[in-house]
Amino acid sequence: MKKFIKFLMLLLGFATFWSLSTLHVQAADNSLEKIKQSGKIVVATSPDYPPYEFQVNKHGENRIAGMDIDVAKQIAKDLHVKLVVKSMKFDSLLVAIETGKADMAIGGINPTNERRQSVDFSDIYYLGGQSFLINKSDSSKFPNQKSLQGKLVGAQTGSLQYNLAKANLANTTVKGMDKTPDLILALKIHKLEAVGVEKPVAKAYASNDNGLAIVPATYKLDKNQVGAAVAFKKNSFALEAAVNKSIKKIKKGNKIDGYLKNAGKDMKLNTVNTSMWNYSDYFAKGVKYTLFISIVSSIFGVLLGITLALMRFTKMKLFHAISLCYVEFVRGTPLMVQVMFVYFGIGSIINISALLSGIIAISLNSGAYVAEIIRGGIDSVAVGQYEAAASLGLSRRDRMRFVVLPQAFKNIWPALGNEFISLVKESSIVSIIGVTDLIYQSNLVRANTYRGIMPIFVTMLLYFVITFILTRILNHYEKKIRSRE
């Protein structure tokens, strides 16, 4: 009996502790109050998934539209705040709300059990179903889902469709890609035999591309995990309750059908004129951002590189070690990881915009490579130059400043030029965090026009023109430097 009483007391104590902890978390929840104080709600999405969300090009003006955007507008209206839409890759959406880059994420996101470990979800606002897209010429070859077993099937990385294909299609190779337009392009050039997408997305692509056909998916699914829901940061109870009220209003008024009709009208706007000239503003904006990021990053990269190179030659062991460790670490990690760390990692502590995060990451990365180039240039200066400068009474600092570095820069100018050209091309990595560079804009054109190859060709041509002109400019100044010797 005593043991039973002790057990009850222990159980009661645990229940009391859990209740107090829950109340404390709820009391500390300021998710809704924070939004109302700021007067805006920031929503993260990936606008390459029609009819859920996509870019609309109307009279030269670009905006994000789609069913999900109308849902977000209703939520913002009910909260009496301004809607701010932040674009990024699909597999970065949940990271964005976890790190405070957005208040909520929307984008046909399925509330799976795995995702619930990291974020919270609203009630499901739309249940669209699953389908496969195939080439219409393969319709007789792939009449149903079963016929796709053992074939090469694609799906968006991190999506429910990817996991479903992996789990349900026996002996099937599932290829993951970040962007739906990439998957559609791979399908059309027969790199894939089918692409798993949600039913509305399949209808959107098939209705705008006569070369595509739909195969229904026959997965046995839990309806609580396959519908579209809004994602929030963990323990955002107040915001979640407010959003659920809006979703209840949307369902009660049967507004989703109207949202889908609006999305259909906007999608037709994009296909009225799919010429690349009609999307010239997209490409022009991409070129502008690419050049801006490259030039600013190269300036800071050179300044950082000079500092790190000089630290390698200092007699202070601490500075030497810091420079060595920095260069080795940066050169040993991918630029993509560095960009994401600055934006989501450091950005979760200090609010940094996507553009500034991209510039910082590329500058830090370039600085490590420039440091090694400059170090090699300094080593290439003959020892006699040091001795001659010392004999004239110049200090160590002045010898480096007036004698060694000027000669070193003459020797390394071609290498620095190559680093700058490489930086122009490598800057495309910032598109993963939603910076509207040339690659990002190209992806939007592909999603809007349902044309896979031509936007890529135009982008490739623009990169060539940029690098060709820059190469000619660098060669011109290299000749001027050599002529002074």
TrEMBL record:
InterPro entries, alphabetized: AA_ABC_transptr_permease_3TM (IPR010065), ArtM/GltK/GlnP/TcyL/YhdX-like (IPR043429), MetI-like (IPR000515), MetI-like_sf (IPR035906), Solute-binding_3/MltF_N (IPR001638)
SUPFAM superfamilies tied to this protein = MetI-like, Periplasmic binding protein-like II
What's an example Gene Ontology biological process for this entry?
amino acid transport
Please give one Pfam family short name: SBP_bac_3
- Show which residues constitute the signal peptide: 1-27
Asked if Transcription regulation is a keyword of the record, the answer is no
Q: Tell me what topology the record assigns in the membrane.
A: Multi-pass membrane protein
What GO molecular function terms would the record report?
A: transmembrane transporter activity
Q: Provide the protein's localization.
A: Cell membrane
> Mind listing the UniProt keywords for this protein, alphabetically?
Amino-acid transport, Cell membrane, Membrane, Signal, Transmembrane, Transmembrane helix, Transport
> Transmembrane segments in this chain: where?
289-310, 341-362, 453-474
Locate the ABC transmembrane type-1 domain: which residues? Answer: 287-474
Report the family membership.
Belongs to the binding-protein-dependent transport system permease family. HisMQ subfamily.
What this protein is called in its record is: Polar amino acid ABC transporter inner membrane subunit
